[in-house]
Amino acid sequence: MAHFEADAVGQLSSPVAPSSRRLLPLLFAGNAAMYALYVGVGSVLLPLQIEHIDAASKVANLGVVGGVAALFATVFNPVAGALSDRSGRRNPWILGGGLAAVAAMALLGGVRTVLLVAIGWCVGQAVMNIYQAALTSVVPDRIPLRQRGVASAAVGLGLPVGSTIGVLLASAFSHHYQLGYLALGLLVAAAAVLFTSAAREQRMPPKQPMPLRAQLATFLNVLREHDFRWAFIGRALLVLGYFAVTSYQLYILQDHIGLPSGLEPSKAVAILTPISAVAMTVSTVVGGVLSDRLDRRKLFVGLSAALAAVAQLIPLLSPTWPGMLAFAAVSGLAFGCFMAVDTALVTMVLPKAEDAARDMGVLNIANAGPQIIGPFVASAVVSLGGYPPLFLVGGLLSVLGAAAVLPIRAVR
């Protein structure tokens, strides 16, 4: 374990080679465009479109569409990855997925029934997962092991920056959501063209994909490890609590929060998202540095998860616009610190250093799975009791996420 930890530190402190340095801004741009589409569609355009089709059933319909599309994406992602593995190339899949995103978004913006919206968003998820699977593989393919930390930071910054761009762009077209879909598709296409024209690649030997049975065995084996299993559970619970609330943010602003006169809900989302993104970026850096200096991981993971629970109480106790501003800032601080420190914690409880990439892939299920379940959970809670119980459920899940790290033995 000590040997693996030293390797991780070495990765973060090593200078970046010139060839790798040229990839970093391209990786940032490619990931930022991807998150812009995911967050812009999921937070603004899709809820607006579903409300336009059937306002009375918007909560239930958004839960079904979001959940089905997320399930489809989770299943399709390894398929897309296997296709690029077999070809020994990444750039053609990045370019193809990016260009296809334009057509998929145009299709999604043009449909007029909930069923067709679900199908259209599944098509969008398919082409975006082709793009995402190939882009994600660039780091292990082309970045030396000792430079992965810097590359991961460039990729990670794509989330707050991309989500802000996506929400601002989607909100600008809130009254013409068809154009909003098209604009986000064009953004991904532009990033794909930029990446593939500036980052040339050499064909690699084709890889044989792992059979489904072997993938399932890998998943079950690594979850038998005590510390990793609790880290997995903690991550899944907090992500579920976070996305159960944020996926319904537009409807919360429409139906539960008292907004200032003249402020439309879609514009309010465009204000809240940058606040959360800035807070997330700051806490990611500060939390990571402090946890390194103090050599304490569980403390920071527990505090950030508890802070996430506090954030959920703010709009519950104060369903006002200032309350939502405070919620955005506090939840961003909590989620950014949690994700940064929890990722470091997980690297310290991986069963084997040589299987680190595989096991971190298993951990990604704790990120993706709750995003499948989240819309269904949120829809059921809101349908039964309205929005206040949704904040309670989100806070409870965050507390349980904090409690899940306590049994971990190998990390302070």
Commentary on this structure:
With 412 residues, this protein is mainly α. It has 2 domains: 1-7 and 19-203, Growth Hormone, Chain: A (Up-down Bundle), CATH 1.20.1250.20; 214-412, Growth Hormone, Chain: A (Up-down Bundle). It is 82% helix and 0% strand. The chain contains 16 helices and no strands. The chain has helices spanning 2-13, 18-53, 58-87, 91-110, 114-142, 148-156, 158-172, 177-198, 212-222, 226-246, 249-255, 265-294, 298-317, 321-348, 356-385, 387-404. α11 (249-255) crosses α12 (265-294). The longest helix has 36 residues, at 18-53. The chain is globular and about 60 Å long. The two termini are 14 Å apart.
CATH class of the largest domain: Mainly Alpha
Gross morphology is: globular
Structural class: mainly alpha
- Number of helices in the DSSP assignment: 16
CA-CA gap between termini: 14 Å
